[in-house]
Amino acid sequence: MIALRRSLFVFVGAATAATMLGGWTPSASAQAGKKAKTVSVPAKRHKGGSGTGGTGTGTGTGTGTGTGTGTGTGTGTGTGTGTSGGTGIVQYFPSAAVWTQDVSGVAVDPNSASMINQLASQGGWGLGSMKVDESIRVIQANSSTPTVPFQPGSPFYTPDSDNVSSVPLPAGGGIEGQTGYQCDASENDCHLIVVNNDTGKLYEAYGANYNGSALTANFIAVWDLDQVYPASGRGEQCTSADAAGFPIAPLLFNANELAAGEINHAIRFILPNNEMRAGVYVHPATHAGGPSGPANAIPYGAHLRLKASYNISSLKPAAQVVAKAMQRYGMFLADGGSIALTAQSDQDTQTKYADVDFGTQDLASLKVTDFEVVQMPAPIAVTYDCVRNDIP
Fold first, then answer.
1. How far apart are CA 35 and CA 65, in angstroms?
2. What is the spatial distance between Cα 338 and Cα 130, in angstroms, rounded to a whole number?
3. 14-35, pLDDT tens digit by residue?
4. Which of 38, 102, 162, 315 is the most buried (most CB within 10 A)?
5. Which of these, 299, 255, 256, lies nearest to 275 by C-alpha position?
6. How far apart are CA 189 and CA 3, in angstroms?
7. What Cα–Cα distance (Å) separates residue 383 from each residue in 188, 237, 280, 288?
8. Dihedral angle of Cα 196, 201, 204, 208, to the nearest 10 degrees
9. Is the pLDDT of residue 300 over 50?
10. How many CB atoms lie within 10 A of CB 165?
11. Once rounded to an integer, what is the mean pLDDT over residues 186-198?
């Protein structure tokens, strides 16, 4: 099922989606971003990915300015953890990165109960229950993958975007919700995600489309998978292909992981804009889209954890794997939209969701009151004035 983007830009840099899941159509939630400047782009190298088989359901995502990856500062070492693409395991950042930290013993934020109660009072998860979007593809590449020229789209988010001259497009891959690399950015979010584990690069674009001669996008980032980014990620007030400024791929669970019985990273989740605290974000987020909720609402970047007391035995086996990950690694608030959780499309995994009997509503019994907010750093006021970090 193709994910449909909402048709309204609140500002030039805004983006969220109305989505279709199963047989029902949710309403869109608008998300504001920073106003983008269109510039000519100097060269920077990229490498990309390839994939295999399957289909997904949809949900919208948005973009603004910002990215946060990693836990604190440093350069981190270790093998890291990640999600499976195709038949192999992808390394998404070193083991010290924030996305793979066990937070089962971390203190609860002192305002957790207030934030959770506020969220519950506004209806909880978008569409009233926890559902799963399976439309975002993650394409695997290697050092021999061919590249195509890159051209900035209109609008083009800068200085948030990286400087790019070419992008790898493996045969058989595609953009979010699509079977190929063609995508109508006026109707869809059109995320393109390509990971090259040979070169340690993760390419994430928003509003992407390939016209047969060049790839265009409204935003593009190249993440260094060997880097533990500082708390301010790629830069304070800077967006990524996600509104919170996070990398997307490391937070997507997939069918291969469900088959293996373990997800060893945090999970991406989203909320309607009116249920997120207006005007602020907390690290590891470095940006917020268009949140319009009250002062006691959950902010962009918040880290939620499924309570240890929740009895997951009532869930189907594959759903239990997701629930265990939410108890150990939690989930990060990454964007504005209607469908709570995001999983990788099984178009590009060896295992399909049907193989493990996992459906998009298998976590619907999880209520917002079954979660708690992990202790947060101080909120940062949103200005949309991106200042990029000098990442080696």
1. 9
2. 10
3. 333 322 223 222 222 223 333 3
4. 162
5. 299
6. 7
7. 26, 7, 9, 9
8. -60
9. yes
10. 14
11. 92
